[in-house]
């Protein structure tokens, strides 16, 4: 199976070369676990390799994302300015809608269903990141959500996109982890205390990746000024 680099060498090795091409991979985790950073790694590498990329952002502005990437040593601003990378700013629309409601103006409803995001994907887009799906997941019934996830996955495959779907852990759990059934693979990021060292650490595990031999080992990683750096893996259950 053809693969596309994750932008992180250690993760590429774990996934037999990277994310499966033209498939959707789900990344879940708590706040601060590094979800958006994994999206930035993916976009940076694939822009550098000449692919057309898109990020649909629901919680951050393009300026925030570009600044985060710069701090990680993964400057994506040149690709954004050239048009090779597009960042669709759903965050701003959502914020305006909330603001209008709060201050008594007639709200413009933030009523976008997941499959309708396909309208934002320009022709020729090869790599897609949607961050954060939790914004959509809590607004619909579980049955409708499963249908929408299935519809979105079908449509992005039809568009030819290798896709990262990022979702916060709270929304993932509240929706009975339905998203995990629709995607081709999933990666889980955790933050928890290392009782031996008395400090908090970040962990990664891969519960699912079809057509890929995956290890049950958890990997410890750090977020540095050069991005994510994996440490010696520890064998623990997810």
Summarize this, please?
The protein is an alpha/beta fold.
Architecture overview:
Strand 10 and strand 11 (227-230) form a beta hairpin. By secondary structure, this protein is an alpha/beta fold. The protein has a 9-stranded mixed sheet. It is built from 9 helices and 11 strands. Helices cover 34% and strands 26% of the residues. The radius of gyration is 18 Å and the shape is globular. The longest helix is centred in the middle third of the chain and has 18 residues, at 142-159.
Strand and helix map with partners:
Blueprint: E1 3-4, H1 9-14, E2 19-20, E3 24-29, H2 35-48, E4 53-57, H3 62-71, H4 77-82, E5 85-89, H5 90-102, E6 127-131, H6 134-137, H7 142-159, E7 162-168, H8 169-174, H9 179-182, E8 185-194, E9 199-209, E10 219-224, E11 227-230
Parallel strand pairs: 3-7, 3-8, 4-5, 4-6, 6-7
Antiparallel strand pairs: 1-2, 8-9, 9-10, 10-11
Q: What are the defining features of this structure?
A:
238 residues; alpha/beta; nine-stranded mixed beta sheet; 11 strands
């Amino acid at each position: 199976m053809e693969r596309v680099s994750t932008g992180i060498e250690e993760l590429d090795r774990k996934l037999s070369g990277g994310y499966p091409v033209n498939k959707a991979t789900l990344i879940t985790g708590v706040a601060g676990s590094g979800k958006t950073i994994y999206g930035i790694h993916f976009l940076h590498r694939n822009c550098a390799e000449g692919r057309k990329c898109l990020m649909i952002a629901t919680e951050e502005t393009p300026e925030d994302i570009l600044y985060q990437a710069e701090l990680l040593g993964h400057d994506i601003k040149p690709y954004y300015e050239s048009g090779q990378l597009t960042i669709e700013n759903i965050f701003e629309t959502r914020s305006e809608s909330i603001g209008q409601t709060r201050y008594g103006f007639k709200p413009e409803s933030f009523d976008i269903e997941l499959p309708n995001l396909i309208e934002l994907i320009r022709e020729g887009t090869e790599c897609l990141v949607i961050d954060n799906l939790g914004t959509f997941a809590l607004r619909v019934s579980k049955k409708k959500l499963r249908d929408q996830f299935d519809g979105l996955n079908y449509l992005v495959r039809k568009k030819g996109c290798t896709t990262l779907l990022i979702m916060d852990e709270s929304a993932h759990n509240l929706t009975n982890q339905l998203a995990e059934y629709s995607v081709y693979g999933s990666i889980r990021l955790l933050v928890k205390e290392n009782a031996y060292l008395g400090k908090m650490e970040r962990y990664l595990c891969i519960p699912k990746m079809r057509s890929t031999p995956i290890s049950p080992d958890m990997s410890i990683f750090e977020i540095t000024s050069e991005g994510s750096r994996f440490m010696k893996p520890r064998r623990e259950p997810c």
